[in-house]
Known about the structure:
Structural class: mainly alpha
Largest sheet: none
Strand content: under 5%
Order of helices and strands: HHHHHHHHHHHHHHHHHHHHHHHHH
Radius of gyration: 25 Å
Amino acid sequence: xxxxxxxxxxxxxxxxxxxxxxxxxxxxxxxxxxxxxxxxxxxxxxxxxxxxxxxxxxxxxxxxxxxxxxxxxxxxxxxxxxxxxxxxxxxxxxxxxxxxxxxxxxxxxxxxxxxxxxxxxxxxxxxxxxxxxxxxxxxxxxxxxxxxxxxxxxxxxxxxxxxxxxxxxxxxxxxxxxxxxxxxxxxxxxxxxxxxxxxxxxxxxxxxxxxxxxxxxxxxxxxxxxxxxxxxxxxxxxxxxxxxxxxxxxxxxxxxxxxxxxxxxxxxxxxxxxxxxxxxxxxxxxxxxxxxxxxxxxxxxxxxxxxxxxxxxxxxxxxxxxxxxxxxxxxxxxxxxxxxxxxxxxxxxxxxxxxxxxxxxxxxxxxxxxxxxxxxxxxxxxxxxxxxxxxxxxxxxxxxxxxxxxxxxxxxxxxxxxxxxxxxxxxxxxxxxxxxxxxxxxxx
Length: 444
């Protein structure tokens, strides 16, 4: 018996030693940018099934760090943009990139500010920088009462980068003196992103004056701005000071994405009351049944499926002639089983919807990529991995979007490490976005 135990221990130590050696080879390759060696090392680990999500995230961090460090000045801004969602994990690398006073360095600084890796007070020194990208960094920190004059001047700066950050600073400052300039920016600024940020800043204020100012903006706003306005009316600061009444009028008579956003926002408020809630449900049901494709898809995605009328409307779309609408409806129905314990009927319906999505996800189907991505999200948290092999097959697709979609779907299934081969992808954008996907999956 003692001999058998010793043999078993020896085999375990041999396996552990081999795994550690393979891991160190992969890490050295990731840190140095040796993609060929990294690809071989990851493939060997995946073949043995010994690469954990945590190890994959560590390799991802090394890959993205090396890409940030070695990116050419021409490509550096794109690399920073690709890793912005996982700035928390890459704070050290982004801090190092800030050492170069160029557009990429400024983008790295803003990413760190958004991820709370860098203090706003430290950014203030750049508020007067002659470089617009770095001036935007300093503008983001103008949130004190004593910054009002500088903040309002930045709101009309010649650079849209600076104006955007001025609006974001105003959102944090919540200075009543900023309300009129923000309203003007939301109406007149030529850049859509600045108009959007101005409306989002207004949502941090309270009072009927703000709700009325948003009403004035509604008439001249495009669909995107109207969605932001609807969300602003539903904010905790405006809901009870004019926002609820504005949404009531919008849902009763409005159409398009803004009205859908408003209806969904109402249903997220538990104090909406039965009359207003019924109005919102009716607007969503109407949009699901008879709206334009984009409106139907938005309403299906935002429908609250604890409402029988909305469940019925989504069910009716599960066999729709429009494949995009059908996939949207099936995704919602399949995902109902992901929330934990469900009744027998819901579980059966979710299973049927999942099977229908699987049929659409076949490689020969033109809607395969969308259906596969939908399946990954719908099956999140269920432990159901029937689509995994098909997703892994698409990690070698010729389409960058399909490769990244497969990585995201695998992460949703809880097996992010199976997408680690993308860390050696020839396309740096695929490589770094996949790295972020792995790091954020490990964060969850």
